[in-house]
């Protein structure tokens, strides 16, 4: 029988990350870059959310405001050549993998200058050169694509690692565990990441999830499994880097459950009736990933108020430019609506 204290959204102390408490490296420029990426994502998502409410984003979008540290920590824990496959809520992962904000915004608009020519939209961003093997509207499917990437890496012996993402809702779909099982049995270089933001649409994950935690469930498949504070970019980066190093050494997959929170509704404009405003305020005021990281850098003498303002201004200018590009970009040529897959595969040099 659960008590009120057990309900989803109650702030419980996150378990330590896989590698223990993360020390702050004294590399100011690099850490300010991470913060710059987080501010860019925050600004992008807040702007895009407003644009979606004005009807500028066909099909709408799923904002990841509050989840910035998960994306930046993952991207910064990987090497060039490593790949990430995301979910329906993955603009933050695309931007953390350094897809150009102009191309991401134009893709949300369904415009020709979009990352995928405007044919994918918010849920289908991809850039193979930058290691984004697609975001994905099918719950749990991105992990299967990452599993394929990890299998390819182990066959080609190219030393790359794949990260597959899903949410707490995805943790309750069968395919997720088929992928985890195969990765463990085949000892693949896969980092499995559950981005647990406590809710699947309107459902509190605790009300539908058996066992103590998703991480503990995963441990039953015979791979190392850890909970990570997903609001701490450094903890995420350390955990991902350790898991990627382990995968690269041939030791196989690792499971990471990242504890995070989405500030907005499931999708832009959703009327939220399943959690309290107070709960959102608690997360925002005590665990905001951007504020926590800025404060940590400031305390360590690695960030001045002027540098913080400069990063925020730069993010604002970049996103304003992205909106201009998206507004001015033409619609895709209707004649390319069907059949352009062949043209694309020809352009990539694939034989048919
Ligand atoms: C196979 C499948 N079933 C159902 C849906 C509808 N759906 C879209 S998002 C979602 C919930 C996902 O929750 P979670 O995995 O926690 O991710 P979050 O939205 O919190 O990022 C559902 C059920 C879907 N897209 N795909
Ligand atoms: Mg969720």
From TrEMBL:
SUPFAM superfamilies: Thiamin diphosphate-binding fold (THDP-binding) (SSF52518). Residues 337-352 have a biased composition (Polar residues). One of its GO terms (biological process) is pyruvate decarboxylation to acetyl-CoA. InterPro entries: DH_E1, PDH_E1_Alpha_Subunit, THDP-binding. This is Acetoin:2,6-dichlorophenolindophenol oxidoreductase subunit alpha. The keyword Oxidoreductase applies. Its cofactor is thiamine diphosphate. Residues 13-25 have a biased composition (Low complexity). The keyword Oxidoreductase applies. Pfam families: E1_dh. Residues 1-25, 327-352 are annotated as: Disordered. Keywords: Oxidoreductase, Thiamine pyrophosphate. Residues 38-334 form the Dehydrogenase E1 component domain. GO terms for molecular function: magnesium ion binding; pyruvate dehydrogenase (acetyl-transferring) activity.
């Amino acid at each position: 029988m659960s008590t009120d204290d057990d309900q989803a959204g109650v702030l419980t102390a996150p378990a330590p990350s896989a590698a223990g408490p993360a020390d702050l490296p004294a590399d100011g420029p690099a850490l300010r870059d991470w913060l710059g990426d987080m501010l860019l994502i925050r600004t992008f998502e807040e702007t895009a959310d407003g644009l979606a409410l004005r009807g500028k984003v066909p099909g709408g979008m799923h904002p990841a405001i509050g989840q910035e540290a998960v994306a930046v920590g993952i991207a910064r824990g990987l090497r060039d050549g490593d790949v990430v496959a995301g979910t329906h809520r993955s603009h933050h992962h695309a931007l953390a993998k350094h897809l150009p904000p102009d191309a991401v915004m134009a893709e949300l608009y369904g415009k020709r200058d979009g990352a995928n020519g405007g044919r994918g939209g918010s849920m289908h961003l991809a850039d193979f050169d930058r290691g984004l093997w697609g975001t994905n509207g099918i719950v749990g499917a991105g992990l299967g694509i990452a599993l394929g990437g990890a299998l390819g890496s182990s066959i080609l012996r190219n030393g790359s690692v794949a990260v597959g993402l899903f949410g707490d809702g995805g943790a309750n779909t069968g395919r997720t565990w088929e992928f985890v099982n195969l990765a463990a049995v085949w000892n693949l270089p896969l980092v499995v990441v559950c981005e647990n933001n406590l809710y699947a649409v309107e459902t509190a994950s605790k009300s539908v999830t058996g066992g103590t935690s998703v991480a503990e469930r995963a441990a039953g498949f015979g791979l190392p499994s850890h909970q990570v504070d997903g609001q701490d970019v450094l903890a995420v980066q350390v955990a991902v880097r350790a898991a990627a190093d382990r995968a690269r050494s041939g030791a196989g997959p690792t499971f990471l459950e990242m504890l995070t929170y989405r500030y907005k509704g499931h999708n832009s404009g959703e009327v939220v009736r399943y959690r309290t405003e107070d709960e959102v305020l608690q997360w925002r005021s005590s665990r905001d990933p951007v504020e926590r990281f800025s404060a940590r850098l400031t305390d360590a003498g690695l960030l001045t108020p002027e540098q913080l303002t400069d990063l925020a201004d730069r993010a604002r200018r970049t996103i304003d430019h992205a909106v201009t590009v998206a507004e001015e970009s033409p619609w895709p040529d209707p004649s390319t609506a069907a059949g352009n897959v062949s043209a694309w595969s020809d352009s990539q040099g694939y034989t048919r």
